[in-house]
Design brief:
The complex is a heterodimer. By secondary structure, chain A is α+β, with helices and mostly antiparallel strands. Chain A contains 11 helices and 35 strands. Helices cover about 20% and strands about 30% of the residues of chain A. The chains are: A alpha+beta, B alpha+beta.
Chain lengths: ~650, ~850
Amino acid sequence: MNKKNLSLLLVSAMFATGCGGNVASSATSESSKHKDGDECLINDFETESDLAMMRFPYPVHEARGKFELSDQHVTHGSKSVKFTNIYNSSFEMQHFFAHCASGSIDPSNVKSIEIDIYNDSPYDTSAAFTIYNNVELDILLQATFDLPKQEMTHVVFPLSKIALDFNAKTVVSSSLTLYTPNTDYDKFVGYTFYLDNWKATMGGEYTEEDKKYQPKINSITEKISALPKQDSISLKDEAALEEIAKDYCSLPDLYRRIVPNYSEYKAKLSAFTDLKLASMPLSPVRNVYMAMNEFYGSTQLIPTASTAAEVFFDDSVKLNAGDKGSTKVIFSGTMHSQFNFHSPISTNGYDNVHFTVKNETGHYTRVWINYASLIYFDMEEGETADFVMSASLFGAQDFWVIDQVKAKGDGTVVAGTGSIYIGEIYCTGRSEEERKAELSEAFNHLPDPEALVNKDDIIPHLSTIEMARKRYDESPDDIKQTISNTLYSRLLALENKRDVGGYGIAFNASKYPYNRYYYGENFETLTGVLDDAYGYVQKVILNDPRSDAGVPEQAIGFTDEIRGSYLGYQMAIYNPTESPVNCVVRNTNWDWDKYESYFTYATLLPGQWNVINIKPELLRISTDGKAAIFLSNPEMISLRGEWKISSLFGLPHFC
Amino acid sequence: MKKSRPLIWSLSFLSLMLASCGGGSSSASSISSQFVPSEESVWSTYSTAKVIQQPNRNSDFVKTGNDIKVEMMKGEKESGQVIFTSKARHSFDVIKTDLVDENTGNILPASAVEVFVQRYLQIEVNLHSTTKLFFYAGESIPDFLLPLEYAKSSGENVVEANMNQGFTFDFNSEGMEAGVYKGEYQLVLDGKETIAIPVEVKIWDFELKGRSNLQSCWLVYSMYMLPGELDASEKMLDTYADFLTDYKANPYLIQPKAMNSPEAMMQDVKRLWNNKNYNTITIPYDFQLDYDASTKEGDLAASYIVKIAESSTEENFYLDYTIFCPSTYDEADMFAPKAAASPAFFKKGGSYQQTLEKAIKILTDKGYFAGKSEAWSARVKSAIRAIPNPFTNVNYVEEWTKNLPATFCPEINVLNSQSTLEVYKDFAKKTIDDIYESSNAQFSDLAKTKNPRPDGNLWTYTCVNPDYPYPSHHIDDDNLSMREAGWMEKSYHVNGYLYYMANMYAYENKGGKFFDPYTVPNRQGGANGDGFIMYPGRKYGSSKPFPSNRLMTYRDGLEDYDMLTVYQNKVEELAAKYGVEGIDADDLIQDLYNKMFNFAVGTEDHSKFFSIRSKLAERIERLNTQDDIFYFAKKAESGKFNLEIYSDSASLEVNGKNVRTEDIGDGRFHASIDIESNVGPINIKTMHSEVNDTLSNYKNVSHFGADSSVSVSEESSLAKKDGSIDAVIRSVRKSTVAKTQKFRPSIFLENVDVKGCSELFFDFEVYDATPTIVADKIETEFTVFLVGKNGAETEIGGNYAMATSQEETIKKHMTLNLEGIDTSKYDGITIEFKNCVIVDGDLALLPDRGIRISDIGAR
């Protein structure tokens, strides 16, 4: 059993007759009337109306059961509630302090929550009491306890007065979770529990430990309040933020959770990290800042509001050399999970993003990176995999979606359970020497403008011109100086010829496309090569994709914005295979309402360059990772080979 | 292709102003405190109206009196409502009595009506309807219908001072005779004062035989049973399935996969089969995006089909009622991974069809077909291959619609375009024809099976979207639109409706906030009322759930669909009897459709709706005569219109004059008379029967004679024949791209007279007019405008057809709705065609399209 047993909290087999003498049961009681020592019924399970007060915070398909009033195992009043577990799942039932049998209860003055539970099953199991801090169901206090089989257990859950005091305005409810034992899982169906006398005892007191930490919590609270407003945070506040983080991390877990304005701190920290990020000089070869798993007490990946997973920094698991630890994600199994970067990240100037993932979920898992752009990878149980992908895909992305899908075997898609670890995520780029060499190479291949006599002579050189311009503009000044004035003038002259002719490059081949299906498995990272016919082109090495899935198919995405407005577009694709290949260029934009009309179809003849025309409607829509070239071979012949893809040429207007 | 929506900015502005005056989220009591009704009263209005609890807007609702008047078929349910406006707090009760038909002495017992107390949900904000608000923030809208006995036992039979309290009376004519039943119910206040409520229920003398043609799939989630009913047992789930079926909402239970099995499914099917409302067996198998029919998953999916096939008999042929609901592919046009996976699943020979073939193979391997007749084998195999798979789409996806043999299920507002609708209809028919043609090809002529759904499978759905002016289940939209949806669906040959969740008894995501399933209208953030159509019964001690007035309206809309089917069946029966070809019930009833709705937007006039419904009933009754009188207008060779009359009687009088009849054999007789002399009231009398009706004024708008003013745009050509034109539409390249794109090849008709008409109609035929084959198929799409000499122009519709070879011609009938148009302003018609498309970066002129249009009529 994974649940932690807190024997401290257990008072087993006590019957309510000994502690129910002062129970307030009037539904009209006001919370202000409850005095210290009063026992206020949260639910006595006497009537159907009592049962109707129960709420269920996480409805899931698996939660199948039935509640009925019962005359058995009654510890207070004349009825108990019998709960029958119909399907094998844990159950959580929730009570709002504002809607109790005793009316509204002031949660800040509750000393303890108690209940009597009879476990009628032949299995020992466990349950948990939880105090939710807010309507987002953030846990403030929680304890688990054992439920021995065939026994009545009287459970007392003493609440931390200090925790309730500090969060008096937000605490909403208490809940009881009945767990199924994780052995004999399937057998645990059809058994019953009897519940009665769910009540709160009023008048909590500070423990010695509470008293010890109260000043520190007060101090942290005040320091957070003393920080400038979120929109006024500056780099000068770094020391104050660090101090708060240090103080906060020195608190035991219980006391961390009760710092009432910690969310305010996180918001201010987020504003600060934005500034910090913008101010940090980027290393030309590795973005160190991005590689930090944790800073200022917070993991860099944080779950979104709709995610039921927990994220921790785990310094015991280091996946990459030099890692300080990893981000550990524990999935709840209740819904798919999505994470944002704590602050938007920057990949400008870098070529690749690297990361490592370790799958300890206990099953085959699919991890999505940016759901909209169709990138995912699959991992077997226990697998640790390194991934390298185009930095351009992260350029505008400030989020990940990690969506666990148990898709193999019986084909069931479920929200995941278990854990994955994500190592440091970092960018890499080319060194200064490499950049200089590339820039020189690009200019050295520029043709002589005077040799281009006819208007169309420039077409084969368009991407070379484009590449030279792009590399020049992206280079720091000291690298630009590598290029002589003569060579630069040649570029200007060629650009003038191009513009006069009306041609242009709508999209160049310098970015990294991606493989929609098996990134990093059957698809090698692209490299730019010079080709006599089409200037700079991208070389794509396809292995033997989807050999187990019928028709071989690959998708290569556009990852750059289409520039300019042209009446038509052309690009060339070299088909290295020995058979014709179907090629469809289609928009896979999130804005799918144009999907149906806008695509281009062509057959790529084997062993040669194939020029395809692309409708302007297709490219009118932003193609930031959302348009793609789909290659398929209906004859079932492999797409294996070295493919080459040219830039996308914009054709001039003719009117 | 889509017709633009009407702009109602002035209304929008007014509505916003009113909303802001309403005080935002002010409570019901604060609103009422500003308004004190002048007197206590009982008043009635249409069952489709939602009268809010606060009486300050009572004048907005049409008061139909202080009584209940309901008209209905035999064997259906129909509701009416009365409102009590209070000045003081009262407890109340309603005393029902038997209703009596004074002519026959027949009784409609008190037990045949169920009385519901309307409960109100206060909306914090109207979440939709940017063009018009029916309800405003803070208003309490009736939705939850609490049976009177439970209101009394729970003490909720109380109306507060200065409030409205609505009562819904749901009548059941099952087993009743036709007639007019009258009587009086009593509203009892505080146990002493009584207010009489006169009641009149007219039961028409016809009913639907068999099960409804409109299938449905309502998803019921087991996960919400616990929050609502504290009981997620099989028995409770069965109760929910039974309850929804009573309201013609066929259930699809979503529960843990392990809880499903072919045996358990069949057990449910056999239980539900006893309910004649049950007509959709949704197989509880959900195809995943990476579904592969060759795996064990394929075996599992196919095993359900096998079970249903093995259970089917001549009498109970379950297969014809079976569907899959591939909900993982829901709204795939909105989600990239779903969109990417959809073609492989839905395409011809794709994993869906592989599953169906796998089921047939399993049956074959098991020896199921051995010893069975060839006709039975043909029927079973064809029915399996035709199992629908509603594929919900938020938008019209042309590529999918024209290429995937799926059961398309667009949002109902997508059907708000005739051209789009025509594509859906054409391809639904093509898909089913292809299935039956290829399936039947495997059998001898004698064994070939008949397609039970000749129009194919076309479904529709509503959800968070759409909202006003389209049909919706939103609490803050009018109910009338969903009632009218039944008519729209029948008109558009839609034969299925899907709703994604019937029982959202908790917040969709987390249950952090205190949630009361009886008072919270917005449960997932998108729309008030979205995701739930019913209320749990447990709190009130009921063993079954309670309806909303939206569910009741949905049911009544479906029963209207059934009533239209009764009409269609009768027309087809009489047409077959008299050997009349080319008669379509849709055409005969188009005038009623036109008056009620324009594509997916219905009238907002409740009175008009019920008047049209009564007219439909009259038409059905006119077809139910002893001599089987059957009459309709038909275009004659002259271009004019004749009234064709058929009956079993040789003697015939029309408006008191004897008319010679022609003996067409087997005791059947026919007469044809000039309709233009009989416009207005008409009396048709045969030996044993008599029918009274009012004939419309049929006009021949253009006969395309030698003197007709018809022309075409430059480079197109025109040949006039008597009664029709034959035009070759040619695109033209202009001096600039913009001009080329703007140009529209057209046919112009001048000097036409459509004054006073509500409908324009003609037949057209398209063909490939290119000298050589230039494409696999030639699509002809056009838009029709009324034009006036003063430059006035209004679009009245459009259509599309596709010829796939030079030899092929496609014929279609076209009806254009002129309701609401001031036809006196127009004296011309323009039919516009597309000029060009962009292909490979260049403007490409469309190829020559041939179109023949027969003379244009109006009425």
